[in-house]
Amino acid sequence: MNNTSYESLLDGRSINISPVEHTFADGTVIYGFPSSSVDLFSVVLLYEAGAFYQDMPLQADAALQLFDKGTMLHSPQQVAEFIDYRGIIVNNKKKRYVGEVTSFMLRRYAMDFLPLLHEMLTQPLFGAQEFSLYKARMRQSIMLQEERTDMQAQQMREQALYGATHPFARFATLDDVERLSLDAVKSFFAKYYTCQRPTVILSGSYGEEEVAMCHDLFGGSPVVSELTRCMVAPMPREGRLFHKSMASSQTSIDIARLLPLDVDGDDYLRFVVLNTLLGGYFGSRLMRNIREEKGFTYGINSSVSVLRGDVSFDITLDCGNAVVREALDEIYAEIARLANERVPEEELDVVRRYIEGSFLRSIDGVFELSNRFMTSVEEGLNIGMERLMEIVSSVTPDDIQRLAQRMLSKEELYEICVGEGVK
Fold first, then answer.
1. What is the pLDDT of residue 232?
2. In angstroms, rounded to a whole number, what is the distance separating the alpha carbons of residues 255 and 297?
């Protein structure tokens, strides 16, 4: 399509969003996003150690949350004082496939901190007191989750999409907290962290010294050459309505499905445009209808997620208990509009500009570039800027209508409702 009304925000510019690759003779590659305009340094270590690899709930999370609480050579207090005195930020996140260890600091502290980080990853203390405190926090967290309708709806969605026995659909219970042992946590950490070579991503102010030290500490050959674990295919549950009544001030709604889309195909990117139009930004159709016009909710959102080949779509909102049925009817009506009516070009232009603007914000600085690259490693999704912009700028109303008809049939959508408004 030759769209004469649409003018790209990029205006033909090409922006390099790829990392610098520091390659070593032993095969180690350290990825970098250098900048001389900031004095901050960040190092990200990504390990194949997410929830998918654990043998029991909480095992992966506990390993990641406890490894930096002291080492065999330094007590928890000494480690905390070292980090706090220098204003270093250490942020550990357990994702579905990866364990993410991210540290931010002034560059002048990097050469002192990196050996301590290596020590924490190779000689963690895993003290009994810290483990007991972790279990106490988890008990409190799980009890709070059991009272929240949105968390209950999220868990029911994952179980509907993947099947109750899938690693992504297993959520920790109070019994799991009691069953978790310190030996199980140590075993997981030794296998998936100590014995593995992580993906290393540097960003900000750094030079050859920091790169060389990261190679010496985190590069080289892993103790275990390769971890293998069979992928578990989703086994979606039969039926499409999953409702749970519980005392609440509002009801949480989640409409979702796994999409039969190839992330390397153009239709995936076209569906991203469709999703944005439907509920992916503040001016979306769902937001205008259900929030602005009807006043059923403070916010409604639709999203597309990719996780190493699996593409999922969902719509989430919390609404008053008295308007659950009306909210559902309006959601399905907006989906039907996309399938039955052509989207006006003017509305599509607004969405195109929003997507381009969001993309430009996501690469506005080395730390944003690093985060985007990190996400691509975690999700197994790497789409070049030129291809993204090409598809976004060329998507047509016919594309939107065709994908809505093919992907968003009501019969294919799971409907999850949790709260007092469930009838």
1. 66
2. 15
Kindly report the pTM of this predicted structure: 0.90
> C-alpha dihedral over 229, 233, 237, 238, to 10 degrees?
-150
C-alpha to C-alpha distance for 189 and 223, rounded to whole angstroms: 13
In the prediction, which pLDDT does 267 show? 96
According to DSSP, the residues that pair with 44 across neighbouring strands are 102, 201
Q: How confident is the model at residue 380 (pLDDT cuts 50, 70, 90)?
A: confident
Both tokens of residue 137?
């926090």
Cα-based angle 353, 356, 359 (whole degrees, multiple of 5)? 150
